[in-house]
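Worked problem 6 (solution included).
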Amino acid sequence: VQLQASGGGLVQAGESLRVSCEYSGSISRINAVGWYRQAPGKQRELVARFTGSGSTVYADSVKGRFTISRDLAKNTVYLRMNSLKPEDTAVYSCSAEIPPLSRYWGQGTQVTVSS
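Solution. The predicted structure is:
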């Protein structure tokens, strides 16, 4: 499975941004996809993901501001980020999970929010 993230950039606090992740390869085996982020000096954390049943899970810090969506025809998952805050600054990476234990990562895209 290959994942290619795009759409990061530099925005001001309060602005919006959408990042995209196109995945390819053994798509039929993918059980879940999602977005994670890692800020400098911090551990990588979940932002939002689709579970195997299609439901969504969000980190508390982004609930109400971020929305994960996907286009199955395009094999693409999106993350719409509204009301961005400086603390949202991080490298955002997409991930695909294949049971039982495999996880694949894209290269990440930088999102920087200035105050």
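Discussion: The first strand starts at residue 2 and ends at 6.
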